């Protein structure tokens, strides 16, 4: 499984993904699930992936080919597309195309080709936008009413987001929120695992403002996780039945 | 959907269920999902249900018929079975039988006959035992290592249980834990809803020690829920990134 979460806030966007991939319980590996594309000051696009690794890797490979192609246009390259909506369309169509190419072979073996992505980005002069791309290639967008999107194993980590994330949340609090949301998920589902990839894109920066990998045993994350456990247990003790 | 949770602790057992049932989003009703059977001081059995309402209702009806039957034996009646293990077997076999009877008709309409149950009980001279009965009628048992069982929409409410529930947890703390676990679930999933049924079976009481229905707007539950939200937000604010 996977857990990826993206917040779309007034101050910017915060993204967090795990890295665990598994084909059955006895075949576990670490794969990056967050991919960033920058033309600093002009355009930034970040993609997080969940689902079939062969589908998401092939989709990313095709997107990169189009970016590097000598005849790339705004219709084919996510770095030239005129709007973020067009970026989401290109990614959705590319993923749907990859699935279509392999689905008949995969289904022979009853292997799922399902996959989904979170796409976050901004181009100079435009707004920040964040999309969740479904396996079929269609998508929904984060809004002020629902300022976060999740893919993969999303349920364990949702209650904390529901309680603390608003559009006005600061980028610092947003990083705490996604890390604690991930912490709950890591504790409850073995198939979501460290290391983690964290990225912050401040509004109008049009670049990756901060990016960081948290390895297993990261002291900051361990301290936060422990402090949160202690705080929850203390709060629990104080509440009257 | 449904959310039911049962804790098996040194001091006793604590059970909580919601009451929302739906056939699609436009057909929502309230049905009790917790059923108790008592021969006070001699035997207590509590059953919580999730899944197809027609399957769980028919299963309960057949169990009651067997209890009331003039030729009931320890092989057929959960109130005469010699052990709690046998009680779980009777319930599992009854449910599997109900599903077998209707599955061909239900599958014509592509309606799921899946259902599951939590069974908790004690007979005089025996230990408290708690089982999760799967749709196929087989079951697992709560143990000291895993002192809680959940059925239905279990993910939102699991992190709090993972953090605070141990075999040594008091019955008072256990009631807080299941109510806060339900609170997280209610906030995140519309198809789980008030009122709630709460029951406590103290060790060696061999009866329902306490049973209570919490209606929508229950002031105690609302106060706890609000206090927990406030405590979580305060804790969140104090934690350093």
Automatic annotation (TrEMBL), chains A, B:
It comes from the Bacteria. It comes from Thioclava arctica. This is Peptidase. InterPro entries: Ntn_hydrolases_N, Proteasome_sua/b, UCP009120_prtse.
